[in-house]
Amino acid sequence: MKLPRDLSGEELAKRLQKFGYKVSRQTGNHLRLSTTLKGEHHITIPKHRVLRVGTLSGILSDVADHMGMTKGDLIKTIQD
Fold it and tell me: pTM, whole model, 2 decimals?
């Protein structure tokens, strides 16, 4: 599954709400998201207009590992 190329940090945070992630704090231009679904988990997302592919890939891999799913399945879910 191909990663979206035009996803902003705020849009990613909004799409991750499907998995129970909510903004727990903001420091400068970084958002910290937290979820208690399937255990407590925190991720940090830069609040940039367009996320770099490597940054996005790392964030999605971390979320997929925590949720117990493949990164491809996670990408399909957040693109809907």
Answer: 0.91
> Hey, which bits of the chain come out as E strands?
22-27, 30-35, 41-46
The predicted-structure confidence for 14-57, as pLDDT tens digits, reads as follows 999 999 999 999 999 999 999 999 999 999 999 999 999 999 99
Map tokens 């367009």 to a residue: 50
* 8 Å CB contact between 24 and 42: yes
Return the C-alpha torsion angle 66, 67, 72, 76, nearest 10: -140
Domains of the chain, earliest start first: 9-73 (3.30.920.30)
